[in-house]
Design brief:
The complex is a heterodimer of chains A (169) and B (102). Chain A has 169 residues and is mainly alpha-helical. Chain A folds into two domains: 2-90, Four Helix Bundle (Hemerythrin (Met), subunit A) (Up-down Bundle); 127-169. Chain A has helices at 2-25, 29-49, 53-77, 92-115, 129-137, 141-162. In chain A, helix 1 (2-25) packs antiparallel against helix 2 and helix 2 runs antiparallel to helix 3 (53-77). The longest helix of chain A is centred in the middle third of the chain and has 25 residues, at 53-77. The relative contact order of chain A is 0.07. Chain B has 102 residues and is an all-alpha fold. Chain B has a single domain, classed as Helix Hairpins (Orthogonal Bundle). Chain B is elongated and about 55 Å long. In chain B, 59% of the residues are buried. The chains are: A mainly alpha (169), B mainly alpha (102). At the A-B interface, helix 1, helix 2, helix 3, helix 4 and helix 5 of A face helix 1, helix 2 and helix 3 of B.
């Protein structure tokens, strides 16, 4: 079983990091979105490996089902796909600066994780779905209600912002 | 390297990729994609930390669910902002959308 877990970890790692690289580096925004979807599927696989299948399914449902479609709509509505603004060549200096911005915090954090590792169990805890639900409607019911309020406000705000007035100002 | 560190390193790699993309991308949609990468890395880190340590596993999973809800709300709002910006400026590059005072 241990070997299978390692192989699965490798596959998901490849999917996550490869997809992430495709998402930030590809010239066309549609390809970048495809890379994001690969990466999110890889993270869903990690959730399955961590014995959190509900979170994995929610990852697929919310991120891949809803957020990716939203981003696709954003690309479509702004007509940015064909020969998009990302397609022209970038100066190497910009690339280097962006690389430094991304990798200096990542290297610092990775060093901290490597030098001071937390004690870890090798087998993840399994939590049943019903106990998860009990915590969600028990002590954390306020957070649960507020996230729905935040979602409603965001939807209403989005409709208000994007609503096109017929009359000219 | 123990199991938790491996997951945390993956999450940090996602954070680094997202930060890199946020600076490197020139369009607003590309920046939104990078932010989603960072948020999924955050979720992975929280779930790994709660599932592999004696901390409450339910709490970590709920925190990740709430991160996902916030990511969905944020993506909705950013989509609306991108639509408004593209209608007003006829562009979605962050270089061109730099006019603060009309």
């Amino acid at each position: 079983m241990e070997v299978f877990a390692k192989i699965a970890f490798g596959i998901y790692l490849l999917l996550t990091i490869g997809g992430g690289l495709m998402a930030v580096l590809s010239r066309s925004l549609i390809r970048a979105l495809l890379g994001l979807i690969f990466s999110l599927f890889g993270v869903a696989g990690f959730y399955f490996l961590l014995a959190a299948p509900f979170i994995a399914l929610m990852q697929i449902l919310i991120y891949i089902g809803a957020v990716s479609i939203l981003i696709f709509l954003a690309i479509m509505l702004t007509r940015a796909a064909v020969g998009g603004e990302e397609s022209e060549k970038r100066p190497a200096r910009q690339f280097l600066l962006a690389l430094m911005t991304g990798f200096i915090p990542a290297v610092i954090l990775a060093t901290i994780i490597k030098v001071y590792p937390l004690p870890s169990e090798s087998v993840p805890v399994e939590v049943s779905l019903s106990s998860l639900g009990k915590v969600l409607v028990g002590p954390y019911v306020l957070a649960f209600e507020f996230i729905s309020v935040v979602l409603v406000v965001a939807m209403v705000g989005a409709v208000l912002l994007a609503f096109e007035r017929k009359k000219a100002r | 390297m123990n199991v938790l560190s491996a997951y945390q390193i993956v999450a940090v790699a996602l954070l680094g990729l997202g930060l890199f993309g946020l600076i490197f991308r020139r369009t607003l949609v590309g920046m939104l994609i990078s932010v989603e990468l960072m948020l999924s890395g955050a979720g992975l880190s929280v779930v790994a930390a709660s599932q592999l340590t004696p901390a409450s596993a339910e709490l970590g999973q709920i925190a990740t669910l709430i991160i996902m809800g916030l990511a969905a709300a944020e993506a909705t709002l950013v989509l609306a902002i991108i639509v408004v910006v593209s209608r007003r400026y006829r562009a979605t590059e962050s270089d061109l959308v730099s006019l603060l005072k009309g």
